[in-house]
Fold this protein.
Amino acid sequence: AVVSTQSTGSDNKLESLAPLSSLTHLLTLKADNNRLTSASLPAMPYLQRASFQNNKITDTEGITHPLLEVLNLNNNQITKASFDGEALRKLSILEMRGNQLTSTAGLGLPKLQRLYLGENQITELVDLDKCVALKILHLRGNGETTNPIEKLDGFSKNMIALQYLNLRGSKVASLKTEIKKLNCLPMLRGLILKDSPVAKEEEYRIEIIMNLRNLERLDKDIFTDEERQEAQELYRQREEEGKLSESNPEGAMFLD
């Protein structure tokens, strides 16, 4: 069963989901481009996909559908997330672009694989250590805030599946102190830091690959053999000069 509360080319001006609460056998629910202030519904036992983008939703209360796999809350007015990981046991894709989130608190969902949080106001990275299945994390465009993302303290060795991290437009500025914090991500293969202060530093790409040995792409460009060789030579030079940090044992790869 599929219910769409959006007519093609028109806005239904729906203000409440109450009329749908009795449709307990829904598989897909689409309620985009309305006037909803809440996505709360009684738990629907079969609902797998739900979309509420372009509404006026202010919180995530009442989203507890046990088979829900994909949830779209893009372009609302949500300031804080409070999802129940036990209730949302199947949720693997969550889109919350263009809201007013200031933190990743409440987003620690253990089955989540893709999380899209671009164009929010996030200044704090917390609860990510609970996202043990997360493969893709988008944080693009969270730099236009009073206290933008400058530090990468919220990442954890528990995030064993994370492969792609987009921090484009952040205010991360230090190669020496911040990038090394991503060493705890063993599967990280793609990193986006374009339009961030750190991307303007001298030897930006070489410094990144020297610290993150498993990385394959930076700002979508694959690391070349020449860049890896240059990083190896720089590593050895610094080792000879005694400037290598003891906190970066991963650099030992260049001694092979």
